[in-house]
Amino acid sequence: MNQYSDSQRGSPFLRRLFIVVGCIVVAIIALTLFVVFKGPWDENSEVSESLPNDAVEEFYVGVSSLDVEANQRAREIFESLSEKIPNESAVWANYGIALLRLNEIDAAKEALQKAREIAPNDDRIIWLQAMIEERAGQYDAAIDLIRALNTPDIKALYLLADLVERTGRSSADEERLVLLKRILTQAPDNLLVQLSRARIAAKLQNKDELQAALQNLDELQASWNETALSKYESSTNAANSDDFRKVGREILMLENVLKPTPIYQQSLAAVQETNHTLGQPIRGFMNLAPPSVVVAEADRKLHFALQSRNAEASRLQMFWALALSGERHSNIVWNGNQLHIDNKTPLPVPSSMNQSQIDISSLLGVDLNSDFRLDVVAVGENGLVIYVQNPKGEFSSVIPQEELKDFFQQSWAGVWAIDIEADGDLDLLLSPPPSKEGQSETPATCQILRNNGDMTFSKISSLESIPPLRNLHWIDFDNDGDGDVVGLDTEGRLLIAWNERSGQYTSPEVIASPVTILSTDTADTDGDGIVELITLDDSGDVRRWSYDDTDKKWTTITLVHWNDIGELRNSSDWERINLRLADIDNNGAVDLIASAGMKTAIWLSEGTESFIQLTDTPDMFVNQVVDANDDGRLDLIGISKNGVATAINQGEKAYGWISIKPQANPNPGDQRINSFGIGGKIEIFAGQLRRTAPIQSPIVHFGIGENPKTGVARVTWPNGTSQAEFNLNSGESIIAAQRLKGSCPWVFVRNAKEIHFVKDFIWRSPLGLKINSQETAGVSQTEDWIKIPGELLSSLDGTYEIRITADLWETHFFDHVSLMTVDHPPSMEVYVDERFVPTSVPDLRLHCVTPPTPFELVKDEQGDDVTDQLTQVDQVYVDSFPLGRFQGVAEDHWIEFEIPADVSPDRSLCLIGSGWIYPTDSSLNVAISQGSFPKPHGLVLEAYEHERTQETTVVPGQWKVVSDNLGFLAGKNKTVVLPLPNPSGQSGTRRYRLRTNLEIYWDFLGWSVREDDTAIATNVLDCITSDLRYRGFSKLSAEDRRKPDLPIYDTIAATGPRWRDLQGYYTRFGEVGELLSETDDRYVIMNAGDEMVLKFPAQDEPPPGWTRDFVLVGDGWVKDGDFNTTHSKTVCPLPSHANAKYDREDSSLESDPVYLEHRTDWERFHTRYRTGAKVGH
Fold first, then answer.
1. Which pLDDT score, from 0 to 100, does residue 35 have?
2. Is the pLDDT at 395 greater than 90, yes or no?
3. Which residues fall in a coiled-coil region (predicted)?
4. How far apart are CA 624 and CA 647, in angstroms?
5. N or C: which end of the chain has fewer CB within 10 A?
6. Is 581 helix (H, G, I), strand (E, B) or coil?
7. Distance (Å, rounded) from C-alpha 1047 to C-alpha 1044?
């Protein structure tokens, strides 16, 4: 497909013809939009003039809020709009969606009923009403609404079939079969529906329908694997023998085998929403005038004022403008063997007498030491040099370690930044120059110089098979959440190495192209929210390359053709070639800028694939496109025949723009992503405009056309997490600061008043957790006990109800859950030691002690009195210790206390401590292990030995270690029980301190005396019902870096996916008690957003005066999606009690030992397949 500018289309007659035809097309489109937005239900619609200007803006901010699951914000916006424009049904409908997602069912029903009163025949509103009834369990009402749809599509018909099944009536199967056949009249090749038809026909023993369904399946076998073909053959054989029960079983197994395949996933997406987001927002006005066009008209009169200055042009090699401070751009000139940065003292660089060997990729601005200032890396024929910038803006060179001196002196042609191991700092990928003709030695390949985080570096073997490169891009092309490497080699071939996580990439594959590629860049040129690869080839075509992560194929179309490319190829200027993509006229669409030698061509976009070539372009080579003078317009940076060149943008249209400066969390105690989020992406919604841009520098610029503001900007950080920023005014530069995350299943309990968060669970058994860059922690502690205070859990309708939610980026495997009641006299407290000691078996027993007594005086490491913070559990923590560079690791800090003098030394004492820990994760552990950073250590108990005289020598007082392997708190709201030494055994000392460098925040500290455990009564209860279901994600308490994020159960923050699912099979919704009854590797597999509701039989009240507490007992594992966690993309390999190391390399299900032993569980329970597709709308 080619789109050419008017100047390329030939004769004047043809141009006039195109104009006439274009006018007719525009008229038809306008009429169509009128019909679509107005609709036949609009007899009483308002006139367009009655729509307030601010209402349009608010409406689209509200829609964008629904898109990113900012549902509370959306609720407030549409509630306000319902008062401003009460006769607009789309406002009421979107208001209802926001209320539905916030679980306010009755209010959502009222809002949607008002929407339907205004537009009684609109299928979208009727569909939303049906969804509400379905969520409320009113299946018959939902069925009636779906049947009231004017033109039900196949998704409506499929949901109707599902609802009919849920009613359980005797005719349900016959009704479902009719509905499925109705779907197949519209989509005969839908694999999912054909499988469902065959399964129901077998259940009904309808041989004719079964044979027809099997015949249709036979026609869909082209891409099936051997296992699927075998299951199909078994099904047909059983059908021929009229063994209908076996047919149903074999069809179910066939469907499970096919679920991971693209054809099945496509068929599923056609009939069902593949995520759990409740309700798709209505994006346009239904009763009022339709909004203006998405992309503004291109600024056809745009031109540039070329500013050139002599910089010893005979020695000038390249000119850059880099935001060295993260803000203002600095001018950097490579001149001979010196680098000139603004007016600073020139820096020596590894230059060459050959001017053409210094190219756009010879210099890199990158923050290597996480101080939010760009350092400078330069490469050339004579080696590699790294300059580090200090707070004053001065640069000093990095002296390489002895083992790297030869590496630094090698000849290099290009350097790029990627985070090879996703450990939060940027590494360097260096390309050698291409092999010279006749060179006999083995061709050189690219090398990785790993950043150890402390300004030392290591040469590692990853990506060694990539040949010399001309361009490189590090971005997620296959939508699995991690950055892939796409390169253009010096032979003009496109290469891609897919990210396999944990620093591993596939060998580079060639992306087939019929022509030689000259230059590449990345952008979202069609406004679909996906960043594509854009190339300039030697035929003059500029092409867009898109990767389909379902079909695993690249497709390409031609955007424009550069007619001058042939002439330039034969000129003396054919030395440098560059393609850049940016919205230089701010109309909201990405424009194309191509340079070769001293010639530049610019095509302005008017949306999708429509481009107009500018006739007035500067004579220069364009290296970069940046806002050089901070006026909101992008300028051209490069060189001309007269020296360094800046072409200042002189656009005529005063379109809006925003400038976003993504920043990692700048405070101590994080370091999970690189400073400016390089490798991530930003997606904006401004009115109806949608655009995505990769984060390649500290400043990301967007044009927004005639929109007064950007409703929402969604930042996806390079570690896969995301966040949203709202209401960004045009002409505004904003900083998008990264926010933090946590982990582990959450336990809630229900009483007569509320559903209350207790603490997290199975914290001790993380699968694939990296403890350094090479080693993975084993899992030998799969059983967990946590105490539930009796005042939080009470009997309701004869049961104790506990809810376990998966709110974070994890997969949970629950093998067993039970509840223990613990009754004890009032003179006693009972605790569980909720510590994690990695090298020890957990102390799974009840600790009976006297009620804890707070210490009379407690001091911190600075000698400050912190007694008041530690007298009761009240979420007032000791938090004054300095944080370290990485999340979870602080400077050494301690709590110092004394045992009262009147406590008898003969008593068995213990310390009771409550608090929480901010943990590290796999990526942080990898980063910490690479440099010379303090290694994390757990709690250490030390006793103070007073000054004493030994013979004639005075021995000063000093701290001595009592125990140095005490582990740490295993999550949030946890309590530890630590034995305290008998004072008589420590030279009579009663002074102790508890020391660590982990981020442990104490809430309470006291001492107790151990009591006889025979004075208590316990009873272990099994579940009577265990319901797995989808719930969504709880709102978290207000963010405070020094307090735990506590979930608020009653407020659902989001119903759609927040994280990329780990790919694989999860347990289907419904009763799962059979999987929880024993510890036997038959487990419930929970995904993010799932909830397990467990009910246990209530027991008779304890004896008068006694107290009842509870202990939740569980066995299982947790695997998170951190990029450095082993097998973090997939549910498999499946965990097993027989393999504590979790070291199985093969992640396929069919060969997994747990699957082979319990295969029928994947027929009966684990039938819910998730693809790991990207999060978003």
1. 36
2. yes
3. 200-227
4. 11
5. N
6. strand
7. 9
525 pLDDT above the threshold of 70: yes
CA separation, residue 426 to residues 370, 490, 501, 539, 717 (Å): 9, 24, 15, 36, 14
Mean pLDDT, the chain, rounded, equals 86
Look at residue 53 in the predicted model and tell me its pLDDT: 60
* CA proximity to 377, closest of 417, 405, 325, 345: 417
**pLDDT, position 442:** 54
CATH 2.60.120 applies to domain 829-1014:
yes
Fold of 53-271: 1.25.40
Distance CA 400, CA 411 (A): 16
Q: Which pair of structure tokens corresponds to residue 459?
A: 């040469």
Is residue 283 within 8 Å of 97, Cβ to Cβ?
Answer: no
φ, ψ dihedrals at 1110, nearest 5°? -135, 155
Q: How does strand 953-955 pair with strand 948-950?
A: antiparallel
DSSP strand E in 853-973: where? 853-854, 858-860, 889-898, 909-918, 940-945, 948-950, 953-955, 958-963, 968-969
pLDDT for 573 equals 63
What gap in Å lies between CA 352 and CA 200, rounded to an integer? 75
Alpha carbon distance, N-terminus to C-terminus of the chain:
27
Q: How far is CA 113 from CA 110, 122, 147, 286, 593, in A?
A: 5, 12, 17, 15, 51
DSSP string, 1054-1100: ESS--SPPPBEEEPPSEE-HHHHSSSSS--EEE-TTEEEEEEEE--P
What number of H helices and E strands is found in the chain?
20, 66
How far apart are the C-alpha atoms of 317 and 638, rounded to whole Å?
10
pLDDT, residue 114, reads: 96
- Given this model, what pLDDT does residue 888 score? 86
The partner residues of 558 in beta bridges, in order of sequence, read: 543
Residue with tokens 């202990």: 1111
> In the chain, what percentage of residues exceed pLDDT 70?
89
pLDDT tens sequence across 733-761? 666 555 545 568 899 999 988 999 999 99
Which range has the worst mean pLDDT, 5-14, 251-260, 1038-1047?
Answer: 5-14
Are β-strands 732-737 and 746-750 bridged in parallel, bridged antiparallel, or unpaired?
A: unpaired
Burial track 473-505 (b if 16+ CB lie within 10 A, e otherwise)? bbbbbebbbbbbbbbbbbebbbbbbbbebbbeb
Distance, in Å, from the CA atom of 118 to the CA atom of 85, rounded to the nearest integer, reads: 12
Task: Check residue 261 and give its pLDDT.
Answer: 86
Residue 481 C-beta-side C-alpha neighbours within 13 Å: 26
- Residue 852: which residues within 8 A CB-CB, separation 6 or more? 829, 912, 1004, 1006, 1007, 1008
Each residue's pLDDT tens digit, 73-125: 899 999 999 999 999 999 999 999 999 888 888 999 999 999 999 999 999 99
Lowest mean pLDDT among 458-462, 477-481, 983-987, 1103-1107: 983-987
Residue ranges of the domains in the chain? 53-271, 656-737, 741-824+1019-1176, 829-1014
- Look at the block and give the residue holding tokens 């590290």: 920
Burial of 1147 (0-12, 13-18, 19+ CB in 10 A): middle
The whole-model pTM stands at: 0.74
The dotted CATH code for 656-737 is 2.60.40
Q: Is the Cβ–Cβ distance between 814 and 1114 less than 8 Å?
A: yes
The CB-based long-range contact list for 143-150 (8 Å cut-off, 24+ gap) reads 143/167, 149/123, 150/121, 150/123
Pairing of strands 494-497, 484-489: antiparallel
Nearest to 367 by CA among 736, 675, 696: 675
Residues with Cβ within 8 Å of 738's Cβ and at least 6 positions away in sequence, in order, are 662, 663, 664, 665, 670, 672, 673, 677, 715, 717, 721, 723
What would the mean pLDDT of 370-381 be, rounded to a whole number?
Answer: 91
Of 202, 207, 204, 131, nearest to 162 by C-alpha is 131
Report how far apart, in Å, the C-alpha atoms of 288 and of each of 31, 49, 293, 435, 726 are: 15, 9, 15, 65, 25
